[in-house]
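Subject: for your reference before the review

Hello V.,

The reviewers asked for a structural picture of the protein, and I figured it would be easier to keep everything in one thread rather than splitting it across files. Below is the amino acid sequence we used in the manuscript, unchanged from the supplementary table.
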Amino acid sequence: MVLRSLWRLGRAASRLNCSASHHTKSLSFLSCQARMLSFRPIRFFVSQSNTIESLQVRVAQLEKEQGDNSLSLISLYDQLGNAFIGMGDSIIATTYFENAIKIIEKQQQRDLDNLKTRYIGLGFMYLEIKDAEKALKIFKKLLQLAKEMQGDNSKEIAIALNYLSVAHKLNKDDEKYNECLDLALPYMQKNINSNDAQVGLYFQVRGEALALKNKVNESIDCLCTSRKIIERSFGPISNELAGIDRNMAFIYLKLGMVNESIDAFERAIHALQTLKVFDESLIELYRHLAYLYKRINNLKKSKETIEEGAEVVKKTKGDNKHLLAIYYNFVGYDFKFLGDLKASKEWLHKSLEIFETLEIENTEQMGICYQNFSMYSYDCNDNDKAIEYAQKALEIKRATGFSPGEIANSIAALGQYYIFKGELSTAESYLIEAKQLLEDKKVKDETAWDFCLTAFAFLYKAQEKDAEALETFQKAVEIKRRAYGEFHGSFCEVYSSIGELYEKSNSMHEAIEAYKKAIDVNIKVFGRDDLKTYQYLCQLGSAYRTVRKIQEAMEAHNDALEIGLPLFGENHFNTGFIYSCLAKDHRDLQYWDKSIQLHNKAINIYKQCYDSNRDFEQYYGSELYCLGETYEAKGDNINAVQSYTKVKDFYNDTYGENHEFVAEMQTKIDSIIAT
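And here is what came back from the structure prediction:
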């Protein structure tokens, strides 16, 4: 959306004869995973009778007759460039626009406005084909031209710097990206109350840059300023305003401000619906809005939003079935990300059913869909199926020209699946291959490096190479912060694992801080009532017990119970586990009666679990023993003896009278009776 708006402004300034038709999709700089999709820049008038072949013949004739610097060639180069754009070949098109610019640059009296517009147009074509080096070169020329046109302190320079910042961002040079934005700031601040859309779009880009640096308040201020200026420039309903609302929604989401994110997505959807822009950018908004409604547990609204998005898919041009399959697939992925595997399965299977009816070759979208199927299978603990889908995804990605970073991600994913399958040597070979690819291709994409390093850290943890695991997790955290900011779902498991490693080395203060971070991020990203929040609270409570901070442990366990009961129900093993933890907390604080009550709740749950699955015997027997300890600590020897007798009888019935616990319990019982 930023590029769409900047391009529209560049085109409006043009003195060339151009049509109003152009097609764009959205661009966001919210994270290093942001993707630039296609858009079409200036379209010069092309006569229907001028075929590419005839144009090329005329060019050859003119070059022969008048030389390759003839002004007459400019129009022909423009027509050829636009003809190739019409065929969808932007790479060849750029060569003709380059030729036209070279002729203009060589003239003694250059039309600077014409040249400026051409620099902008060609620059954005380079961005379209993701050629950062050429985009930087052309926008640097634009900056120099701006200095020629209006001196060293001009509006044109500030605008050129804004364009140049976009190219630096594509080149993943955050330092230069921010430097350009800072240099443009003084002029833009002077015009903050203007109706100049260029100023508004500058503050949009700057707001996104500040969000990446986790400067929350400044980011929101910039985006709000941008929105006001753009609304004054284009009115209350425009593509430009929808683009800002879209980006604001993602930044609010990045910051954990869910309600504000929902409002911004709804504004963007309303604008695009009003403008009848039924394309993939609108479909994307519905998908993310459905995700957010699910996140706040508004399941009815979430499903309605998904269905509305599906209706938009049906209104788009082209292969609607293919697009609908992709849409359902990504909805399934979103629900998987939220931990709702039942809903995830529903939408992923809808996607798969459509794909199976389509007679299509392997495509880029199919590769992404198989990747999502693999992650879903992994979350369902079906490692074999996860590996099968991941291998299909990798095969398609290699065949369809995915970037080295994307291919490395798929290789690393296979490594991670083999880690949790317990085949560590196979996992290590995949991870080494992924890392080697990133190094050989000099990949700058920090999300790819993050994924690879995180997988290596889990491998080291599984291999019990604790020092290497901790160091690698910490490196991954630094990359995640640069790539995503402070609040991204991938932080949670990493912080939890860091906590476990610190706890293993008895560095309890560091462990507690890591668990707190996992909880904080998980609540902001997935909500307080998420399963992982429950798990991390259990870890935190256990760590507090280890350092004898019993009050803090009890608070963590109470929070876990509050989350766990609606998730699991009263008779689930996890509920029994929390009752057991709380029973110990109350015992240590000498709240005897409450402790006994909680132990009995845990015993009843564990007994039900044991009756249906003998693997739970250790929990049932252990809880009976803990109840006896509590009675003994209270001074109630009669009930203590009764509890220890139940423990003895349980192990006698389960393992026979020669089991060590049978003799141990009898000794304990005799000791209490003797006193």
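For the response letter, the relevant points are probably these. The chain has 31 helices and no strands. Residues 247 and 335 are 22 Å apart (CA to CA).

Happy to draft the paragraph if you're swamped.

O.
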